């Protein structure tokens, strides 16, 4: 078994063991696919993916809004594709702030 597979399996084990702490979240992105100059019509494409996240830190940002840091499997989050995340607590702007072999750290801020 290679190192990448070993790390990926270890991350899966962590998510299985911490399932009671995990939260189901939806990642969202909306992009424009075409624009009709004659009519001004904009065609958009919505992309949504459901994943499990594990919250691990809450801090106060410089703007006095809460910032939540969560863990997610890297295989669940395509780099740069999503811009919002919906959890049972609401809709947040999101940014992947750290990327590892099989894990990403996401910062969530109130919209």
Characterization of this structure:
This protein has one domain: Thrombin, subunit H. A hairpin with a 2-residue loop joins strand 4 and strand 5. With 111 residues, the chain is mainly β. It has one helix and six strands. The longest helix has 15 residues.
In short:
The protein is mainly beta and 111 residues long. Helix content is 14%, strand content 58%. It has 1 helix and 6 strands; from the N terminus they run αββββββ.
What are the defining features of this structure?
Thrombin, subunit H; 1 helix; 6 strands; globular; 58% strand; 111 residues; 6-stranded antiparallel β-barrel; mainly beta
Terminal Cα span: 43 Å
> Any idea of the CATH topology?
Thrombin, subunit H
Shape: globular
How much beta, percentage-wise?
Answer: over 45%
Class by SSE composition: mainly beta
According to CATH, what is the class? Mainly Beta
Radius of gyration: 17 Å
* Uncertain ranges: none
Count every beta strand, where a strand is a DSSP E run of 2 or more residues. Answer: 6
Average pLDDT for all residues? 87
Helix and strand string, N-terminal first? Answer: HEEEEEE
Indicate how many domains the architecture comprises: 1
Main sheet record: 6 strands, antiparallel, barrel
Helix content: 10-25%
Strand order of the largest sheet: 1-2-3-6-5-4
Total of helices: 1
Based on the structure given, which CATH architecture is correct? Beta Barrel
């Amino acid at each position: 078994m290679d190192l990448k597979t070993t790390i990926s399996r270890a991350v899966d084990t962590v998510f299985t063991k911490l399932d009671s702490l995990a939260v189901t979240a939806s990642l969202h992105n909306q992009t424009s696919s075409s624009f009709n100059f004659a009519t001004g019509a904009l065609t958009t494409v919505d992309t949504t993916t459901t994943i499990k996240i594990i919250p691990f830190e809450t801090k106060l940002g410089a703007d006095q809004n809460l910032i939540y840091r969560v863990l997610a499997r890297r295989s669940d989050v395509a780099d740069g594709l999503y811009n919002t995340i919906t959890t049972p607590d609401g809709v947040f702007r999101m940014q992947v702030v750290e990327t590892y072999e099989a894990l990403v750290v996401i910062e969530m801020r109130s919209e």
